[in-house]
Amino acid sequence: MPKRLMDSFGRVHDYLRISVTDRCNLRCVYCMPEEGMTFEPGHRILSYEEIAEIVRTLAPLGVRKLRLTGGEPLVRKGLDRLVAMLSAVPGIEDIALSTNGIYLASFADALKDAGLTRVNISLDSLVPERYSRITRGGDVRRVLQGLEASRRVGFAPIKLNVVLMKGINDDEVERFLRLTNEEPLHIRFIEYMPIGIPGGTDWSAGYMPLTHVLDTCERLGLGYSPCGDVYGNGPAASYRLDGAAGTFGLIRPISEHFCGTCNRLRLTADGNIKPCLYWSDEYNVRSLIGDPAAVEALFLRALDSKPESHEMAKALSGERMSRQPTNRRMSQIGG
């Protein structure tokens, strides 16, 4: 039987999230501080050739799906070149991109031609002034231009990621839901997570369970029903408004964690394997690149250390946790 990337709980991992940079052109309130971030120097960031070599090692072990993340991946030059390298790896079936969309209109054609399959675009508000506040300076019109370019070149499915925050954008749920009526867009509401939050910060003040989305449907009399998984929808519970062309999904890492079906590993921009988003455990693989057996062994070792659950709900309630949470910001991990 061929080797597989299986952890001690029997979870098979076929999905690798690859951060290509820790830098970003925005400063979203749940991801990065407004100032004071220290970024990795260029020589500490994995080259495209190093990333491709890691993927060539993992594909025979069953990795089929890749997602390029950041920071903002489109701030790194020549990303289409990396996409082309990865799409040429035998066994890789799907390459997705998580982006804030600001630069997407400029690069959509080149990325599509290189082999990019689909995109997830972060869009936490449709109100220009509010979007600018959440992102600390972003222009929502440019994101919408990136969305239009994604439609034009044929990325599918196109997903819009909305981090729902109490008192900030929770009044926009209806507007996002109605986007799915006429077009095959897939809105994914995501619970606010305590990733890299400095000590003393009242993270719970912004947290809102996603029952709010279904409650909004009920309040407005919007009929909906569960629907089959949208391709690549991972941990989202998917629903469709009656008669809608698109869907909406709920990703609930706090209120209903999905650790039992986790199939993903993460590779940070500076070459660390992260078996779990929340915990501090990391394994630096960079020095082993060029030795496929050693790279494989380190990934298997990282998987052996992967815990059963991330325990984020304990962070909300203030309970004692079994491990040390990461102090890295979301932008430094890749989400």
TrEMBL record:
Enzyme Commission no: 4.1.99.22
Binding positions (S-adenosyl-L-methionine): Y30, G71, S122, M193
Catalytic reaction equation(s): GTP + AH2 + S-adenosyl-L-methionine = (8S)-3',8-cyclo-7,8-dihydroguanosine 5'-triphosphate + 5'-deoxyadenosine + L-methionine + A + H(+)
CC cofactor: [4Fe-4S] cluster
Residues binding GTP, per UniProt: R17, R67, S98, K159, R264, L265, R266
Keyword Kinase appears in the UniProt entry: no
GO function term, MF aspect, one: cyclic pyranopterin monophosphate synthase activity
InterPro entries: Aldolase_TIM (IPR013785), Elp3/MiaA/NifB-like_rSAM (IPR006638), MoaA (IPR013483), MoaA-like (IPR040064), MoaA_NifB_PqqE_Fe-S-bd_CS (IPR000385), MoaA_twitch (IPR010505), MoCo_biosynth_MoaA/MoaC (IPR050105), rSAM (IPR007197)
Positions with a binding annotation for [4Fe-4S] cluster 2: C259, C262, C276
CDD domains from the UniProt entry: Radical_SAM, Twitch_MoaA
Record key words, sorted: 4Fe-4S, GTP-binding, Iron, Iron-sulfur, Lyase, Metal-binding, Molybdenum cofactor biosynthesis, Nucleotide-binding, S-adenosyl-L-methionine
Annotated region described as Disordered, given as residue ranges: 311-335
Signal peptide span: none
Binding site for [4Fe-4S] cluster 1: C24, C28, C31
Radical SAM core domain sequence ranges: 8-225
Free-text comment on the cofactor: Binds 2 [4Fe-4S] clusters. Binds 1 [4Fe-4S] cluster coordinated with 3 cysteines and an exchangeable S-adenosyl-L-methionine and 1 [4Fe-4S] cluster coordinated with 3 cysteines and the GTP-derived substrate.
Description of how the protein assembles with itself and partners: Monomer and homodimer.
Function in brief: Catalyzes the cyclization of GTP to (8S)-3',8-cyclo-7,8-dihydroguanosine 5'-triphosphate.
The name this protein goes by in its record: GTP 3',8-cyclase
Species this chain originates from: Cohnella fermenti
Lineage: Bacteria, Bacillati, Bacillota, Bacilli, Bacillales
